[in-house]
Amino acid sequence: MATQRTPNGYTLDDSGRRVVVDPICRIEGHLRVEVNVDDQNVIRNAVSTGNMWRGIEIILKGRDPRDAWAFTQRICGVCTGVHALVSVRAVEDALGIAIPENANTIRNLMMMTQYVQDHLVHFYHLHALDWVDVVSALAADPKQTSDLAQSISPWPKSSVGYFRDVQNRVKRFVESGQLGPFQNAYWGHPAYKLPPIANLMAVAHYLEALDFQKEIVKIHAVFGGRNPHPNWVVGGMPCAINVDDAGAVGAINMERLNRVSSIIDQAIAFIDQVYIPDLKAVASFYKDWGYGGGLSSKNCLAYGEFPERANDWSWQNLHLPSGAVLDGDLSTVHDVDLKDPEQIREYVAHSWYRYPDESQGLHPWEGVTEPNFELGPDTKGTKTAIDALDESGKYSWLKAPRWRGHAMEVGPLARYIVAYARGHEEIKAQVEGLLHDLGLPVTALFSTLGRTAARGLECSYAAHLMRDQFDKLIAAIKAGDTATANMDSWEPSSWPAEAKGAGGGEAPRGALGHWIHIKETKIANYQAVVPTTWNASPRDPSGQIGAYEAALLNTPMADPSKPLEILRTIHSFDPCLACAAHVMSPDDQEMAVVKVR
Amino acid sequence: MHTLVLGIGNPLWADEGFGVRAVELLHERYRFPPEVEVADGGTQGLFLLPLVRGAANLLVLDAIDFGDEPATVRVVRGDGVPRYLGAKKVSMHQTGFQEVLASASLAGDLPSRLTLIGVQPVTLDDFGGSLTEPVAARLDEVVEAAVAELRGWGIEPERRTTSPAPLAPTEMARAAYEGRGEG
Q1: pLDDT band for position A353 (50/70/90)?
Q2: Cα separations in angstroms, A473 against A241, A426, A485, B128
Q3: Of A276, A385, A407, A431, which has the maximum CB count within 10 A?
Q4: What is the ipTM of this complex?
């Protein structure tokens, strides 16, 4: 190849040294990235591959559509509730079921809980260590750390003694040799820019965020009956509301609602007084690290989330609006329709699947999932131990989804760009406020840090919206509306012989869609297109690269043997290969060979 | 003194689901005093931290690659548990669970008693399959081993005479999962 121009406007050059990062996820999933760097160690070609096979489709064939949510929530370790919700939406769409207002509000509360939890865990526990040097924190002066913390936030835990205790705790932990979450990091890497005091403050908040996690998940238990693996139901939410009751098993009563209310207050305080100030403090030291924007300045896609009124998916009714932005033109937002066969299509020319005609994409309703593990002619290594992939051939277990033929970015940044372009007042004010505080132009959004910042702003937005939705639920209950499910179409005898539906929504990490085809009351076909399939997508037949691949291009690396810059950008997408694909090999060096059922 | 019995793994991947199926059976058969929580942890990784941090005693049931003969059952206690979970990872959820234990330790909340009852899987890559016969045949033994371990901790499980509220959505219970309608 040497130098090549892609149809979506990127220049690739694979003549330089090849660097392979495998696996790339700190915790969940299994993703591999290969790049070519030039003689200045700047990335000039990027290849993203998911090392697993996906096929919830196959497992669901022939099953009861009302059970699908319980299966789909097992395909991913971290977006269980999101898959469950999108699955029941797909079935409701197919069967024309309208859910009650309270069910919509409670689903919103469940999803917002997920946003708050996921975004916090992502920032502090999965991504912060790409920016924060823990070892440097050990050298910080607790007094100066306390001054810094107090200068940026009224959060009460900010005394000298507090930071000294945290420092000692981390010191003991590091000295004990059980680095745990801090192992496999590149401490002392030149790309770390925070002074020791900022590192110590961030590490202290890393620990506080661990504590906060204990609280937030209790909301899932109140509305979903338990956590993990809460209950969902086609037609609404499976929770009874009985406010006069002293606490019958499972029913939502005032005591439980008060607990939810108090957790929402705690979430808002933690996000606005800890997360957002930390985000700004960290970003202020990385203002000149503007890499990683990739597709975000061109093509962004959102299916939208948080309907205000039940059963209305028009973008105006969604607190996070749906839409597609193309070629960076924020003056035009295209409407997105999951059911239009011309819009979302998946391609497999570079994926380990077989289509009758691989030059064409298939809409998920027509989707085919037939594995075909074959390697390009220039692959280095063997089928079971690949040293370097050949991206001219098939190279990923992820399909390549496209919107009207375009490669798209999904996720918090894409949602914020779509919302901004839709003229969403609150989100515009948030974005402009942050850029003003940091003294950055709007173009700074199109970057790895922009992605990380959008996630933080969205976490705050979701927490405040949770308060509104909670108050709405209480008002409805006080007005005597306690309906949480519409079971009119529960019995399969009431269903048509054949029905198709699509369920969309926004997982914390991006647009998630499920498509169902029901025949004679059973599932005839089921396809899920998950956020990481969009972002980690391989090339398509025309050679357009995906969001990860685009984001890595032109990033300079300080030391290719310590690819901190690559981790930073990939982690900013909050990758979740656990659900983009499934079976991983027992040994990191091998590709899994999968038995197809 | 809160005690957590946690089954981890993914029931969609054959023997990977062993831990989940074992707690399901344990919960069906035995009733525990209120300070004992039996939970289906699935593959939730770091999101299980809040559960683990609340526990003084932790009993984990899982499919583990010990390098043993397939379907061999092993009991590991104390410091060996995180090491076993990290040594040869059967799947990605174990990376996650090893991190959970490390994070609990960092937060100063590592359970003081920690036991892992694991089974050597036969097959993991049968996506959509259920437990293999040799591994399924170990369920009774592992449930009884869990009961014995809990008794050793001073907890007295009682045999149930009626069905309990389910531990996880019944749509994915083992019988429903295996008895698929398509034929």
Answers
A1: very high
A2: 11, 22, 14, 39
A3: A407
A4: 0.88
Instruction: Please say if the pLDDT value at position A214 is more than 90.
Output: no
Q: How far is it, in rounded angstroms, from Cα A132 to Cα A136?
A: 8
Task: Indicate yes or no: CB of B181 within 8 angstroms of CB of A63.
Answer: yes
The CATH code for residues B3-178 is 3.40.50.1450
DSSP three-state, residue A381: strand
Closest CA to A156 of A50, A288, A266: A266
Alpha helices in A241-362 (DSSP H): 254-270, 276-285
Mutation target for B interface from A25, A26, A66, A67: give the one with most B CBs within 10 A: A67
Q: Across the interface, which of A74, A231, A593 has its CB nearest the CB of B11?
A: A74
Cα–Cα distances in Å, from B11 out to A29, A75, A496, B18, B63? 17, 10, 32, 7, 11
Helices (H), A271-347: 276-285
Report how far apart, in Å, the C-alpha atoms of A212 and of each of A209, A255, A532 are: 5, 21, 27
pLDDT tens digits, A299-344: 999 999 999 999 999 999 999 999 999 999 999 999 999 999 999 9
Cβ-contact B58, B8 below 8 angstroms: no
Single pTM value for the model: 0.93
CA pair distance A196, A475, nearest whole angstrom: 48
CA angle A487, A235, A474 (to 5 degrees): 100
Please give the helix or strand (H or E) that residue B121 lies within, else none: none
**Tokens for A223?**
């509305």
Domain chopping of chain B, boundaries: 3-178
Contacts for A190 with CB less than 8 Å, ≥ 6 apart: A558, A559
Q: Which of A277-291, A402-416, A509-523, B78-92 has the lowest mean pLDDT?
A: B78-92
| Phi, psi angles (nearest 5°) of residue B142 | -70, -40
Interval A553-594: pLDDT, tens: 999 999 888 888 998 999 899 987 444 332 222 233 322 222
Q: Which tokens sit at B172?
A: 């994915």
Q: Is B169 on the interface with A (CB under 8 A)?
A: yes
Are B91 and B10 contacting, i.e. CB atoms less than 8 angstroms apart? yes
Tokens 């202290």 found at = A204
Interchain contact, A53 vs B127, CB within 8 Å: yes
What is the residue-wise DSSP string for A159-202?
-HHHHHHHHHHHHHHHHTT--GGGTT--TT-TT----HHHHHHH
Structure confidence by residue, pLDDT tens digits, A89-144: 999 999 999 999 999 999 999 999 999 999 998 899 888 889 999 999 999 999 99
How far is A559 from A555, CA to CA, in rounded Å?
12
- C-alpha–C-alpha distance, residues B45 and A97, integer Å: 34
Are A451 and A572 within 8 A, CB to CB?
yes
Tokens 């525990």, residue located: B32
Residues 6+ apart with CB under 8 A from A491: none
- Taking the C-alpha atoms of residue A338 and residue A346, their distance in angstroms, rounded to an integer, is 13
Q: Fill in the amino acid letter for B95.
A: T
| Six token digits for residue B3 | 């005690």
SS3 A128: helix
Shortest distance between the Cα of B88 and any Cα of chain A, in A, equals: 8
Query: How would you classify the pairing of strands B36-42 and B3-8?
Result: parallel
> Is B93 within 8 Å of B147 (Cβ atoms)?
no
Shortest Cα distance, chain B CAs vs residue A193, angstroms: 25
Put simply, whether B181 touches A (Cβ < 8 Å) is yes
Asked if B95 and B82 touch (Cβ cutoff 8 Å), the reply is: no
| Set of chain B residues whose Cβ sits within 8 Å of the Cβ of A231 | 169
Neighbours of B155 (CB within 10 A): 18
